[in-house]
Amino acid sequence: MDLKSLPTLTALSDNVTIVEIDQTKIVRVIHDKATAGICLHGGHVISFKPEGQEDLIWMSEQANFDGKAALRGGIPICWPWFGRIAAPAHGFARNSQWTLLEHRESENGVIVELGLLPSESTLAVWPYQFQAHLLVEIGDELKVTLDVTNTDTQAWTFSGALHTYLTVGDIEQTTTTGMGPEYIDGLKGGEVCQGGETLQLTDTIDRVYTQPAAQITVSDPVLKRSVIVENQGHNSAVLWNPWAEGAQGMSDMQDDGYKTFLCVESTLHAPSIEQGKTLQPGESHQLVTTVYSK
User: Fold this and answer.
1) Domain at 3-293, CATH from 3.40.50.970, 2.40.160.20, 2.70.98.10, 3.40.50.1000
2) pTM above 0.85, yes or no
3) Bigger pLDDT: 2 or 144?
4) Which of 29, 47, 66, 252 has the smallest count of CB within 10 Å of its CB?
5) Domain ranges in the chain?
6) Rounded Cα–Cα distance for residues 57 and 235 (Å)
7) Phi and psi of 147, rounded to 5°?
8) Which residue among 31, 163, 234, 269 is the active-site one?
9) What is the average per-residue pLDDT within 76-82?
């Protein structure tokens, strides 16, 4: 995604501007270390391009920037639940309008903070008070922190994920390590399976890895780099790719889109909302993913 070519709507600083794609406003960061874009619709990171590199974050060429649909690609925020355990699927955060709260910059990079508060639409599907902050740190690496606080008078439970789409040169030549040996297979009705130390895909995958290592490494011989993913505040890592048949069934993904991405997600997984993580009034939780290449 060529963010640099978009005309500036508002200049907030030397490094931070507001631009627009269709009807959707984007916080654009242009810094010596990297360029990046964060969509206010969904609080959605859509690009992180370290200087001199291909974008680490994949976006669909057919993503819908109408300000209504969830975006295909980037880093969707799945919260306050992950999956189809309630409606809408993956929660409401990825379809809500976030507010730009703050931006700070230094020679090391830029930090952008967004916020989300309850509204009529969120209370209609999840009747709790909360405060959500998204901290996006852009420099030599990309660090995304979803910080949620229970501002209600009663406890609530939740799950979630930072659903990162990573750019790869060719999914069939890409190998992944560090995801751990055990996974819940979404293509086998949630069966618990054991896998090898190295994953190389030949077909669709939808797995919740329950024992991921501190670092998951996606080795990409085509783009001649390894992408490292480090997660915190999670209990699992989800790996997903829809393959050809899945991509053809999505109106917001080009038919061959599956060839150039792999989702590696920082996930707080739960089979139901009731079995999710509980926060008492005043308590907070941070779900974090850090992405960089070497």
Assistant:
1) 2.70.98.10
2) yes
3) 144
4) 66
5) 3-293
6) 23
7) -110, 115
8) 163
9) 98
